[in-house]
Amino acid sequence: MGVKEEKKILVVGADSERGESVINDYIRDGAKLILTAKNKKALDILKEKYGKNIAGLELFNYEETEFDTFVRKIGCIDGFVNVDDESPSEPEQLSENRELHRNLRTDFLGPAGLISTFFSKHKLNKNSGIVLVSSIDEKLKRKEGITGQDAAKAALIGYCRKLVKSTAQDISVMCI
Description:
alpha/beta; 176 residues
């Protein structure tokens, strides 16, 4: 990931399967990490595994009412990494509204709302980056088709790029 000096990086969804790889890359580069997880047990596991290498642990579930408080508590950051579970929907679930709403909340509305709050509160430092971990490109290359989760992630990527462009800030957005 190429962190040259100590940077403060927020990793949302650090308890996901993909989170470990992201965490290890940033630790190797000397970043100061703040990790989030969706439950206390996951936070305890992260603390036990990475304790000496992290600056903070937070319980976070993308609840819109928590965004301002969360951003105030975290303060300015140099990087925002959104790592989520690869939890593909079963074909029979794709037509269920409940599943669609869950995908939109966790894979678009939550991350977009949190990123917007960091922007509006001016808590993204100059030359910071937003990294969205996703597998959309691979699925499209293999012509597997995409799920509601993938569509929400694609919307998030477009939203973040538009947000950066419209604010003319020196912030990069990438999807890996």
